[in-house]
Design brief:
Layout: E1 5-6, E2 17-21, E3 24-26, E4 32-36, E5 43-51, E6 57-65, E7 72-73, H1 91-94, E8 97-98, E9 117-125, E10 139-146, E11 153-159, E12 162-168, E13 175-181, H2 191-197, E14 202-207, H3 221-232, E15 237-247, H4 249-260, E16 268-272, H5 284-292, E17 299-300, E18 306-307, E19 332-337, H6 345-359, E20 365-370, E21 387-391, E22 398-402, H7 407-429
Parallel strand pairs: 3-10, 13-14, 13-15, 15-16, 16-19, 19-20
Antiparallel strand pairs: 1-10, 2-4, 4-7, 5-6, 5-9, 6-8, 9-10, 11-12, 12-14, 17-18, 21-22
């Protein structure tokens, strides 16, 4: 770690000190920031900056006033302004945004989970809102945020036509298994699975939308069943303690598999901002062809951002047009955002509740709904993206997708939902929540 940079303060004749602890931790672990040796009641700005793997700079900042001892303790004191306000220990992460002059439509995502997200945190004299790179910081620290705890194994999976990455917790196991499905953006997204393995779950991040290598016409229920069995049959995985976790379109697949598959029999499922309104017994190509028929329902706002949620509205009453969730025999956790502009997740959850009540399996359903949160509910302290660049899988059109949400409530949703997801998985995949093995840095 770089040593903290400290600059002599002319006013006090002392060197302000900045402490960020831990300097190395998991991305869902809170840090504590303290600034000492300031003047009493001195106005300062705490600033974070991160260079993404796409070579874009992201920043956040908060305005503070030191106490009578010349100290700022972020966990106790409120930010008076900046990219976040109030007592927010992690505001310097979740309120990050591209620096002024950056490209439009950016989204911050970690591709290489073998390396940390490095964030430089600095303290400046006065309440600043811009021009940080032209000012001299009073002190600077560097912190590393990891998705993989020490000892977690990353294993490429290229077997029986299945593509993905398996993350295994340290030790002999066996561990509960989680099949991890991302949404319609496609590609292989590893960071959530890496973090799940850091909390004691063997997690397979599955790639199922990769136009250059996986033809959607060849991806149907058997592909997901093969992936499930590969995970289930791994010697470090407890074959009778398996779950599926899906976000967005991945939730639809999770519901289909849980309702209809004779191979996939999960102990529980987690669905984040998804829907049961999707053709069943179809290949992905057929699903997207069916979705193309409804593109006239897409809406565009005044900022030319696409609102996707109307594609499945109104929720059909015809049972043949949606997953028969009454067939599901395992506990399901639905995590929904009430400002989801990409998918009609709240309306879908209401319909699912009704269907499951009629079928007599409503006791298996747990629904979390977060006010003013948007579609992309990710691991804690991930910056909020109200809109970003996106390629529609059904038309291959490049657009700016409106995800929805407001920054502060969305940050709360991500932190609270992640804690409840881990608790849900521990409850149903371990004998008790206390038996879960959590790897620590």
């Amino acid at each position: 770690m770089l040593a903290p940079v400290r600059t002599l303060s002319i006013e006090t004749g002392t060197c302000p000190m900045l402490s960020v602890q831990p300097t190395r931790g998991l991305v869902d672990e809170k840090f504590q920031i303290v600034v000492m040796s300031l003047l009493p009641n001195q106005e300062v700005t705490l600033h974070s900056i991160h260079l993404s793997e796409d070579k874009d700079f992201w920043e956040a900042f908060g305005h503070y006033k030191s106490d009578e001892h010349g100290t700022v303790t972020v966990v106790k004191e409120e930010s008076l302004g900046g990219t976040y306000e109030g007592i927010e220990p992690m505001g310097l992460l979740w309120s990050m945004r591209p620096v002024p002059g950056s490209r439009g439509g950016l989204r911050l995502r970690k591709r290489d989970v073998l390396t940390p997200m490095v964030v430089h945190i600095s303290v400046y004299d006065g309440h600043l809102t811009q021009g940080f790179n032209q000012k001299t910081a009073l002190a600077t620290c560097e912190t590393e945020r990891w998705y993989m705890a020490p000892g977690v194994q990353r294993v490429d999976v290229r077997e029986k036509g299945v593509r993905g990455t398996l993350f295994l917790p340290p030790g002999l196991g066996p561990y509960p298994g989680v099949l991890d499905l991302w949404g319609g953006g496609g590609g292989l997204v590893e960071y959530r699975s890496a973090l799940l393995a850091s909390h004691g779950f063997a997690s397979l991040a599955l790639e199922y939308l990769a136009p250059d290598e996986l033809r959607t016409a060849d991806v149907d229920s058997t592909y997901f069943e093969e992936a499930y069995q590969i995970l289930q049959n791994h010697p470090k995985v407890h074959k009778d303690r398996m779950a599926m976790l899906g976000l967005s379109f991945g939730s639809a697949i999770t519901l289909i598999m849980a309702a209809y598959s004779k191979v996939i029999k999960p102990k529980c499922c987690v669905c984040i901002n998804g829907s049961h309104v999707v053709p069943v017994n179809k290949s992905l190509f057929e699903v997207f062809e069916e979705m193309k028929k409804h593109v006239n329902k897409l809406q565009v706002n005044e900022d030319n951002q696409v609102i996707h949620r109307h594609l499945i509205l109104p929720i059909p009453s015809d049972p043949t047009l949606k997953v028969d969730v009454g067939r599901i025999k395992c506990p399901i956790l639905l995590v929904n955002a009430d400002d989801d502009q990409s998918w009609a997740s709240v309306e879908s959850a209401e319909d699912m509740e009704m269907m499951m009540k009629i079928a007599g399996n409503h006791h298996l359903l747990e629904v979390l709904t977060y006010p003013c949160a948007g579609h992309l509910i990710e691991p804690p302290y991930t910056p909020h993206f109200r809109a970003s660049n996106f390629i529609l899988q059904d038309t291959k059109e490049k657009i700016v997708m409106l995800w929805g949400g407001q920054t502060k409530p969305h940050a709360y949703a991500q932190e609270d939902a992640w804690e409840k997801i881990l608790s849900f998985l521990q409850k149903h995949l371990y004998f008790s929540s206390n038996s879960a093995v959590k790897a620590k840095l």
